[in-house]
Design a protein that fits this description.
single chain; alpha/beta; five-stranded parallel beta sheet; 17% strand; globular
Length: 185
């Protein structure tokens, strides 16, 4: 896919995926509806494929915005399958982690997700994609923001896209912890 007039954005994505962007491990793409945020995400996926990257993707669904962890579920099920594929270790199912969340809290859910991503990154580069962040349920959004702020492995990148005018919990412009935000016009 060729994106016309998006050289700067594509270079930013390429630096992130290749690990050249040492400080930024997460990228937030913000723009109006129809401006090409999803097209940029698809370009990122194409860039990651030659690197044999493991790609885990979640897309916010407006109808599921009130269902706690519904968006995170999209991401974590294939992630848990990937890390247990060649292992004798049995990972807890996502549902076990989520069921424990009311008593253990989102912190435990977030740490489980971080641990799973780091384990996957031992096998191959990891690209985490979150599209339509504005429609992701609140519980998933907070866990994903926690994950984005703690990405330190140069083998892991996170790219999220959100429509202009919507808040992005935990991933804000100027966020100091390894997250870059860019406006897509």
């Amino acid at each position: 896919m060729r994106l016309v007039g998006r050289e700067r954005e594509l270079a930013t994505v390429a630096d992130l995926i290749s690990g050249l962007s040492v400080m930024d491990r997460a990228l937030l793409i913000r723009g109006e509806a129809g401006v090409g945020k999803t097209a940029l995400i698809l370009a990122a996926i194409e860039m990651a494929r030659p690197e044999s990257a493991l790609i885990f993707r979640a897309t916010g669904v407006q109808a599921e915005a009130e269902m706690p962890f519904s968006s995170l579920h999209q991401l974590v099920r294939p992630l848990f399958r990937a890390i247990t594929q060649d292992s004798t270790t049995v990972e807890p199912s996502f549902m076990q982690v989520v069921e424990a969340a009311p008593t253990a809290g989102r912190f435990d859910v977030a740490n489980t997700v971080i641990d799973a991503i780091e384990r996957a990154a031992l096998r191959a580069p990891v690209l985490v994609i979150i599209d339509d962040l504005q429609w992701i349920d609140e519980a998933s959004a907070h866990v994903l923001a926690f994950v984005a702020r703690r990405l330190t492995d140069r083998n892991v990148s996170l790219i999220a896209a959100i429509r202009s005018g919507y808040a992005s919990p935990g991933i804000k412009r100027g966020s100091p912890a390894r997250c870059r935000a860019t406006e897509h016009r």
